[in-house]
Design goal:
232 residues, mainly alpha, 11 helices
């Protein structure tokens, strides 16, 4: 009677081989052997098609080689990748950061939307989602994501600053000023937060100036209308 192969052992060997090929790709990349690096990454995915580190690296390589469809396909496979090392959420974050750096905000938005469903407790994923949504002009979603990130990590000053700037971009200047003031109070050394607050205050001042002028005109007109004509 022929014994069936132990599936668990086979999966373990596949992971072991994939990790070895991936390590080889890093070594060849350090030597400047681009072709060898890509070949090693491809071999890692032969051993284990859902090996997340190789999917991430090969995906970025394909984007950089001008093959965005292949790159997007590799990134999408991260959704089915097992969380062998417990760091899959970080791999999603790195993939999203790469898309943001490449200004591929629509693709980044789709990736982060999937990522927060898979890892709803990770604030950095909501931060990435907010960034991409804001760049796409989907401000309601960007604000919701920023608020969720801050809810998960309320002591992170950068998340407070991000929410304030997202509110500013959405045209909600009064709310933006309040949140940015809080961000500056949390860390006055944050130059970006201080600059964003300055920009917000200037925008609010410009917004209020026409209202003041209209109010003065209305007041002056009322006074004119209220004056009695002089007697001859």
């Amino acid at each position: 009677m022929t014994r069936k192969p132990d599936r668990k052992k086979k999966e373990d060997w596949s992971l072991f081989d994939a990790e070895g090929a991936y390590a080889d790709s890093i070594f060849k990349s350090a030597l400047g052997d681009t072709d060898g690096c890509i070949a090693a990454l491809a071999q890692a995915l032969v051993f284990k098609p859902d090996y997340a580190p190789a999917l991430l690296t090969m995906g970025t390589v394909q984007y950089q080689l001008g093959n965005p469809e292949e790159g997007a396909s590799l990134f999408s496979k991260l959704l089915l990748a097992p969380d062998d090392a417990g760091d899959l959420w970080e791999i999603f974050d790195k993939a999203g950061d790469f898309l943001i750096q490449e200004k591929l905000y629509a693709e980044g938005l789709a990736l982060f939307q999937s990522a927060v469903k898979k890892f709803p407790e990770r604030s950095v994923l909501y931060q990435g989602l907010a960034c991409c949504a804001a760049h796409q002009g989907v401000f309601d979603q960007a604000i919701d994501a920023s608020r969720m990130a801050l809810q998960l990590d309320p002591d992170r000053q950068t998340l407070t600053s991000d929410l304030g700037w997202t509110l500013f971009l959405a045209g909600r200047l009064d709310e933006a000023e309040e949140v940015l003031q809080k961000a500056v109070a949390m860390d006055y050394s944050d130059e970006l937060a201080r600059e964003n607050l300055r920009i917000c205050k200037e925008a609010l001042q410009k917004q209020r100036q026409p209202l003041k002028k209209k109010a003065k005109k209305r007041k002056g007109k009322s006074a004119d209308q209220g004056e009695l004509p002089e007697k001859p």
